[in-house]
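Record format v2
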Amino acid sequence: MARRRPLIAGNWKMFNTGPQAAELASRLRSLVSDVTHVDIMVAPPFTALGIVAEILKGSAIRLGGQNLFWEPEGAYTGEVSARMLKAAGCSHVIIGHSERRQYFGETNASVNWKIKAALLGDLIPVMCVGESDAEREADQTFSVVQQQLEEGIKGLGADEVQGFTIAYEPVWAIGTGKTATEDQAQEVHEFIRARIEAACGNSIANDLRILYGGSVKPGNIAGLMAMDDIDGALVGGASLDAESFAAIVRGSLDA
Ligand code: PGA
């Protein structure tokens, strides 16, 4: 049984116009209004942040960006800074999602710069790590995750890592319907916690929230949350349906 307060985060990816996002946010708000023992965050696309922030005002649901650029401002067409996310009402930002690594050229180095910018901008980074199918087949899961972690937190002090959330998302489980088994997820979560302990000490590692992501559904959340080192979930597809996402939020307490 996980010992940290759960965080269930919804990554809406490139789905929902402003009006659609507003409808989803208000349905979700009413469905989870009585939930007090789970932290909840949603990350709509940039164009919907303002309207979703309005709808969630006064609720316990937190808002996140799906990405940021590391410069505070400037001539960077198409980019959004930490300060802009903060001003839009965000408390969190997802960094280094595998889709960003795969389609938009993100590297461990750019993830590191973005994490530093998020922390400077008073945003909680949700740093994503995870191996591809080929890497798992080649027995490289732990070495890939270790390198993503080490390079992602390079140059950061333990007090900065304290402000983090990490999401383990095996690339082969994202959007595929293939969830890692509870044991497969737990062993990588345990490994991540051990690496953070080696880098930052026992108490920071113990408090660190490590989310699992990859085809999380109402039916598999309780089993995942029953594992010692799984502290919540980063949910893609199932977060686009208010009832499913609310069921995952509730299910996270059933472990
Ligand atoms: P999924 O996505 O839940 O649709 O597999 C998870 C993610 O990409 O964060």
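The chain has one domain: 7-178+191-234.
The domain at 7-178+191-234 is CATH 3.20.20.70 (TIM Barrel).
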